[in-house]
Design goal:
Layout lengths: L5 E3 L6 E3 L5 H35 L3 H16 L1 H13 L10
Antiparallel strand pairs: 1-2
Amino acid sequence: MSYGQTWTCPSCAKRWNTLQIPAEEYELLARRVRRYRLLSLGPIVALAVTLIPLGLLVDFRFLVLLFVVGSGYALFVIPPMRRRTMRDAGELPRWSLHPE
């Protein structure tokens, strides 16, 4: 569901309108989510796009390098980034939404 739409709960039939959330606060949240996705997946995808063809065409060691670097990134970069993102999410405004 995107911003500006209404949603009806299938179990209780209450309608919720996302326009109750201030637009600038919602955009801040959406921007942070996009940034987290880009920073967590972007470098690995870029590396894979480079190293997979090299591994298939030149030498198998490039695929091993992709595995090693990807594992290191997942073990040492993603957890601190996730902690920082969750800490930042706690500083976002809280919304008190009511059904229509």
